[in-house]
Design brief:
Blueprint: E1 3-6, E2 27-28, E3 31-32, H1 33-43, E4 48-53, H2 57-64, E5 73-78, H3 85-97, E6 102-106, E7 109-111, E8 126-131, E9 143-145, E10 148-150, E11 158-165, H4 181-189, E12 193-198, E13 202-204, H5 208-217
Length: 221
Amino acid sequence: MKAMLLAAGRGERLRPLTDRIPKPLIEAGGKPLIVHLVEALVKAGHDDIVINLAWLGETIETELGNGGRYGARVRYSPEPDDALETGGGILNALPLLGDAPFVVVSADIYTDFPFARLPQEPEGLGHLVLVNNPPHNSGGDFAIENGQLRNEGNGRLTFSGIGVYRPALFDGKSPGRFPLAPLLRKAAADDRATAEHYTGEWWDVGSLERLEALRKRLGED
């Protein structure tokens, strides 16, 4: 199963750090966030990887190259400098991802999630990994009911940025900028998406404070 890493974001809340380095290349635990993810995907057998690029994207391409030194085949999906958002970025990369279901992971997270356990053939249009709500998203995003993704319900959880999608999720969408979330919410409302709750290590490195907390967690000064 192919995988896509979403790496085109500007990282406004991490400025001034992201004025000179794209968010996925920020280091924690001795290596860039995106390298942790590439290595984890390869370990799980997802070694055909597409990465979308916008802000300072050439530095990501320089760092990873063709992915050979990580045991991966890495290809790139370039976008305009202002990027295409999550949904538009995935749609733009579909020619590289093909007709089968594929994994998508946000490249600004740190996690020990075992990617090998993701379903190869998700029921419906997609399968999402949800995590416990961090302080910056205390209300959560989705709920789970008997394995089905729900927009509302008790115990709402946070979307981890990890999912498996069928290309059909994007049917009817035109190229351009658009977010992924409305497509996921429609799939949930139509009973066409599943979900799981992961309680292991997961960090959304979306601010300088969260980056500092992660580095402390990993034993860095």
